[in-house]
Amino acid sequence: SNILHMQDVLNKLGLQAENKGTSTGKNFFGSGDSITSWSPVDGKTIGSVSTTTREEYEKVIATAKEAFQTWRVMPAPQRGEIVRQYGEILREYKEPLGKLVSYEMGKSYQEGLGEVQEMIDICDFAVGLSRQLYGLTIKSERPAHHMQEQWHPLGIVGIISAFNFPVAVWSWNTALAWVCGDVTIWKASEKTPLTAIACQNLFNKVAEANNLPEGISCIITGDYKVGEWMTQDKNVPLVSATGSIRMGKIVGTEVAKRLGKSILELGGNNSIIVTPDADLRMTTIGTVFGAVGTAGQRCTSTRRVIIHESIYDKVKDAIVKAYDQLSIGNPLDEKNHVGPLIDQDAVKAYQHALEKVVEEGGKLIVEGGVLEGEGYESGCYVKPAIAEAENHFEIVQHETFAPILYLMKYKTFEEAIALQNGVPQGLSSAIMTNSMREAHQFLSAAGSDCGIANVNIGTSGAEIGGAFGGEKETGGGRESGSDAWKAYMRRQTNTLNYSTDLPLAQGIKFDI
Ligand code: UN1
Q1: Which atom of ligand 1 lies nearest, measured to the CA of 297?
Q2: What pTM did the predictor assign?
Q3: 381-400: b or e for each residue (b if 16 or more CB lie within 10 Å)?
C-alpha cells in the first residue's frame, strides 16, 4: 500500500513525470539528455530528470557567484535562521521525503525516515553553530599589538554525493556551508536524481518566504562529466565529495591540480573485533545490522568480523542463526529487514565477490544468491552472505557495496588490531569488549587507525554531532559535526598595532 501512495508522495514533493535537473533556486531549467530514475524496489520508472549542459552550468556558476555577494555579508545567525526554517520544513515533509528516499534508493522506510532525521539533526546543529563560528585571540610578542584569527566564507562549495545516502550527506555539507556563508552547488548521484529535486523544492519554500536571491542552493544533474566541470573550475574553491575511492582519487587529483580544497569521504572496510568477554547479544545485533542494514550499502557497513579463537564457533553460530531470521523484500514493507541493491551492476559486483572469495580459498557458510519471482521483479534483491576468509585475500581488501560479511579468527590482541588496520581503507571500526584495558588499547595511538572507532557499538549508524570521515584511502576529509565546519571557511590571521611605533617581529631592527 506504501507503493500505491507513491503518486501522492511525488505530488507532495513537487515532482513530475519529467523534471528539469538544473536549478539555482526556484528557477529550474536543463536541456541536456534525460536520466531515468528507476526504482530498485519494483523495477518501475519513477520519473525522468534532464541533465545540465555546459552552458547551463556556467549560468549556475554566475548566479551562485552573485548570490555569494549578499549571502556572505548576511550575519551568520540570520543565515542560521534560514537553516532553522529548512529544518522545520524537513520535519513537516519527513514522511514523504523518507518514503521517496526509500523508493528511489531501496533502503527500508525506517532508514529513509532516519536519513531525513539526520538532515533535521544537522540543521539543528548548524543553527547553533551559526552563533559559534569562533576564532581565537592570540598574544602578540610586540607591545601594543593585538592578534586574532577569524573565519570567513569561502565562496561556492561543490557537493558531490552518492546514491546510498541520497539526501543526508548533502545536508551535512550544505547546512554547514550555508551558515558559514557559502553558497552550494549539488551534483547528486545520477542514480537518485529525484530526491535531490525534492530537497531543492523544499528549500525554495524557505527561500521564497525570506526573499532570498537565486543561487544560494543550486543543483546540477548528470554523470561524472558534470562533476568534472566543478572539480576543474577555479570558481569552486571547495569540492566535497562522498562516494567511491575510485571517484575520490579523480576528484582529489583534479582539484589539487588547481590547488583547490577538497573534502573526501570515501569507501570503508569496516570491522568489528569480538573479544573473549564480549556481550554475545550486543555483538550479534551490532554485526547483523552493520552487515545487512541498507543491504550493505553504507560506507560504514560492517564488512569483516575479527573473532577471538576461543569464542569463534559460538559467535559464528549466533550470527548465522540471526541470518536465518532475515526477511528480504520490499523495503517499504516494515516487516522486511533487507531491501534491494541499487541496480543490476551492484548485483554483478556482489556475485563476483562471492565467486572470488571462494576462488581465493574462502568458505561460504551462508550462501548468497539473487532472488527471483514475485516481489523480486527488479532483479536487485540478493541474499546476505557470510564467508570465512582471510584478511589478505584480494577481495577482502576491497570494498564490495553489498551484504557480504567476512569472518576471521585471531589469537592475540595485537594480531586483532593488525588485522583491523590491515586494509587500505580507514573509515569505521569497532570492538566488542568488557575489558577496560582492551577498550583503551583499541582507542589508543597504537589502536584502530580509523576515523571512527567505537566500543560496544557496531561500525555503522554514526550520529551527526561527531566529525564523520576516515583515513588512508577513505580520503581524510571530515563532514558533519565537531569542528568540520572549519573546512568550509577560510582562516585569516590579523595583527593590529595600536601603538605609535612600528616594531618588527623577531626583534628585527630596520632603521631608516
Ligand atoms: C555513508 O554511508 O555514506 O554512520 C554515510 C552511518 C550514517 C551515515 C553513513 N550516519 O552509517
Answers
A1: 2
A2: 0.97
A3: bbbbbbbbbebebebbebbb
